[in-house]
Amino acid sequence: MRRIKKGDDVIVTAGKDKGRRGTVLKVYDDNRIMVEAINMVKKHTKANPMQGLEGGIVEKEMPLHISNVMLFNPATNKGDRIGFKVLADGKKVRYFKSNGEVVDV
Q1: Which of 36, 20, 105 has its CA nearest to residue 68?
Q2: What is the tens place of the pLDDT at every residue in 62-95?
Q3: In three state form, how does the secondary structure of the chain look?
Q4: What residues does each domain of the chain span?
Q5: Which end is more exposed in the chain, N or C (fewer Cβ atoms within 10 Å of the end residue's Cβ)?
Q6: What's residue 51's pLDDT?
Q7: CA–CA dist 61, 64 (Å, integer)
Q8: pLDDT of 33-72, one tens digit each?
């Protein structure tokens, strides 16, 4: 089980986008994540008339390392560390370390 999953609301803790919030779009196997509208770069693309692609400068998102983000805790309005615990019914869930609230419901 991963600490950060697709669809989670995260806050960036390091880098040029420090302090910004976004939603996780994709989690890669090499501990990188794609966050919506975070770590935007300009990519120069060549036109390809066969595929109908225009040339020019395109802005796109690039992956971040998972250590540079924290899960956003709505109760405290800050990023928070994540822990794991097993509930009485045997289900493994994530919880916020600061206040003990369960993330997965």
Answers
A1: 20
A2: 999 999 999 999 999 999 999 999 999 999 999 9
A3: CCCCCCCCEEEECCCCCCCCEEEEEEECCCCEEEECCCCEEEEEECCECCCCECCEEEEEECCEEHHHEEEEECCCCEEECEEEEECCCCCEEEEECCCCCECCC
A4: 9-75
A5: C
A6: 95
A7: 9
A8: 999 999 999 999 999 999 999 999 999 999 999 999 999 9
